DNA sequence: TAGTCTGCTGAACATGCGTTCAGTCGAACC
DNA sequence: GGTTCGACTGAACGCATGTTCAGCAGACTA
């Protein structure tokens, strides 16, 4: 009888919600290695209470994942319309102060490889497929031979680059996701746009050759 | 007086080298959280000896980093010529059996964000700049307004995507880097080639607008 | 008032970690 | 042979962690 209750809509009164929020924040800022004691202290609570409400640290994380997933779904329902290029998604996502811990948590999750990360990526890829379809229909985007593969590739490379950049030199303030994304785009937006509008290779040779050899489809 | 000696050229006789190699392998396969005891057991040695040779676990890792960096420089000196597109680099790198732990270690290092990762990325970006220059000169590659930024972007997004893919669903055999890269390219090579030769956006509008607003050059 | 139940505490436990250290072994030197 | 020195062992230390548990306080019910 300890499933996720619909408590704490707006006020973070209950200790349970306080613990959950503290955990999300700590996990986002310093990773999942954060100790239960630290989270408890943040929430102004004893370590024992954490185990009382969630059965274990993994239980805590599971509930955080679940809560974040619900939050993300809600945010996405609000932000139905996104520019065709799809990159401003980050800007919008990170700019809202409320969302900062959410994105931070998701990025940590990606570094860690949990199920939340898989789910989140799947959502983003689905979205990207949708935007690509609209973009192609509107004539704004070049069609692909495999829209799903392209959407996945674009999503993974964008997120992967951002993640890698963050890991290589971590931001001074891990909470300022907007600043992080801004810093990332400051150096990456130009080459990205160049690549998207002018391409990289001058000849079709490599692509055509690959397409010829393609029928030997090997596995998934 | 405990700097890196030029010992153990070919034979892994000395316990010191055995520990180092075991550490590299464990670090590559299961990350830097591996315990000293496990590494010692792999090398058929007591935990104490690890501390005797390297002063601490960090000392061990530092020496691994240094050793890997030297190895990478050597490998690169051998592989001077790489295709213009630059992606086959992984294939070549990963295909050599000898290099598998090297790439694995480097990838782990990137997940972790150590100085080795920074150095390695810097090398790759430098290389990419060189290849791009050659490619542009030969007319095979579209020139960029900022070759350094493009090289960095392409490197980070390729590596980031590979890393993210690996984190999201880890390979059954983390040692089989060639298989991992093959699996990655199986789904990503087509969209990558499409993007490189046909682009993504049909209109120059977004790029041109960005270029107009650019003169407020912020940073490098 | 007595009983009970729930949120909650904080000391204690068990475990695994990096690290230390007293001491053994064997070879090299005088 | 005696001495010294470096490689090496393995038990032990100190610490941080996740987790447990006996018990407390206060608000309900009867």
What topology does this entry show?
2 copies of one chain form a homodimer.
Chain A lengths: L14 H16 L5 H7 L4 H7 L3 H22 L9 H8 L4 H13 L2 H23 L9 H22 L8 H22 L6 H9 L7
Chain A binds a DNA duplex (30 and 30 nucleotides) through helix 3.
Q: What proportion of the residues of chain A is helical, as a percent range?
A: 55-70%
The number of helices of chain A is 10
Strand content of chain A: under 5%
Oligomer: homodimer
Q: What sequence of helices (H) and strands (E) makes up the elements of chain A?
A: HHHHHHHHHH
Backbone shape of chain A: elongated
The Cα radius of gyration of chain A reads 20 Å
How far apart, in Å, are the first and last alpha carbons of chain A? Answer: 42 Å
Based on helices, strands and strand pairing, what is the structural class of chain A? mainly alpha
Largest sheet of chain A: none
Largest interface, counted by CB within 8 Å of the partner chain's CB: A-B, 60 and 61 residues
Q: Whole-number average pLDDT of chain A?
A: 86
Low-pLDDT runs of 5+ residues of chain A are 1-11, 81-87
Total beta strands of chain A: 0
Describe this structure in words.
2 copies of one chain form a homodimer. Chain A has 220 residues and is mostly helical. The first copy, chain A, is built from 10 helices and no strands. Chain A has helices at 15-30, 36-42, 47-53, 57-78, 88-95, 100-112, 115-137, 147-168, 177-198, 205-213. Chain A starts with 14 loop residues before the first helix and ends in a 7-residue tail after the last helix. The relative contact order of chain A is 0.09. Mean pLDDT of chain A is 86; it is low at 1-11 and 81-87. At the A-B interface, helix 6, helix 7, helix 8, helix 9 and helix 10 of A face helix 6, helix 7, helix 8, helix 9 and helix 10 of B. The structure holds a DNA duplex (30 and 30 nucleotides).
């Amino acid at each position: 009888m300890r499933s996720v209750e619909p408590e704490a809509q707006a006020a973070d009164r209950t200790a349970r919600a306080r613990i959950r929020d503290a955990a999300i924040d700590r996990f986002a800022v310093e990773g999942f290695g954060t100790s239960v004691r630290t989270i408890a202290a943040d929430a102004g609570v004893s370590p024992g209470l954490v185990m009382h409400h969630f059965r274990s640290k993994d239980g805590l994380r599971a509930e955080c994942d679940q809560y974040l997933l619900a939050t993300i779904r809600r945010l996405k329902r609000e932000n139905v319309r996104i520019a065709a290029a799809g990159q401003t998604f980050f800007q919008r996502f990170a700019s809202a102060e409320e969302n900062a811990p959410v994105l931070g948590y998701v990025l940590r999750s990606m570094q860690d490889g949990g199920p939340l990360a898989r789910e989140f990526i799947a959502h983003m890829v689905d979205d990207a497929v949708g935007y690509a379809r609209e973009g192609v229909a509107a004539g704004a985007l070049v069609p692909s031979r495999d829209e799903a593969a392209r959407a996945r590739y674009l999503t993974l490379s964008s997120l992967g680059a951002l993640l890698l950049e963050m890991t290589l030199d971590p931001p001074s303030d891990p909470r300022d996701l907007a600043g992080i994304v801004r810093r990332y785009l400051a150096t990456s937006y130009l080459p990205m746009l160049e690549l998207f509008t002018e391409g990289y290779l001058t000849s079709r040779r490599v692509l055509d050759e690959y397409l010829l050899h393609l029928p030997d489809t090997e596995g998934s």
